[in-house]
Amino acid sequence: MLPLVLYDILSELPGNNWSANPAKPRFVLSYKDLPFVTLWVEYSDIPIAMKAIGAKPNKRQDGSDVYTVPVLSDPNTGALITDSLEIASYLEKTYPEKPIFPNNSEALIRAFDSAYMSLILPGFKPMFPRTIEILSPASAKFFIGARLVDFPLPWDVNCDADRKLTEKGYNTVYEWYQKTDGKWIMGNTFSYADIIVACWLLAYKRVLKEDDEWARISSWNGGKWAEVLADVERECKLA
Ligand SMILES: N[C@@H](CCC(=O)N[C@@H](CS)C(=O)NCC(=O)O)C(=O)O
Predict the structure, then answer these.
(1) Which residues on adjacent β-strands are paired with residue 71?
(2) Nearest residue CA, atom 11 of ligand 1?
């Protein structure tokens, strides 16, 4: 079997692996024991690089086109897929062993993805000044322009109101986990829902200051979030 190719975003962090959306297919590929290589793309080069390989654009909230990463190329089938959720769906259909949508749960997990994002998106702004710090100057400039469309200034790492929004979101996710009998969203059954939760936690851990902002987030709900991230990384053989 030829290795699949995952397009992810370059940074100045050692080892990269910081961006939540490309992290999701990386976790799936590793969970399913599929061979893959990663091609690291400068944030500012995403449109030109994705257009050059023939990837489909994604849609902005206003319906306009935007080229995004992750993109997955599968030389075994010729598939070229844009968007983390569509990549997960493709991998599940093409490589069904070790399911990530067990018990026919893809529709519900798609709804879970939207619900989770609507809880955590409102508190995103403190991530942006830290993201700029780990990008090259050209990519930082591009990132600022792209994010300003949906998140007007000010962006403040220490904004209490934004932190409270994130904490409130995770309190709800914590309640969801309390309703299951087992450590995963689907009880004792691991699924893509847990990968979605973990990949945003990974982004906080990698992008925010580990001994400061991440220490605060990971202490919420009795240390639940550091635990979920570690459990999912272990399950996907990434720890
Ligand atoms: N829904 C998409 C979102 C992907 C996305 O927004 N990717 C960001 C990086 S994490 C991107 O490529 N942004 C390009 C831009 O904003 O111009 C997915 O899950 O793949």
Answers:
(1) 7, 82
(2) 68
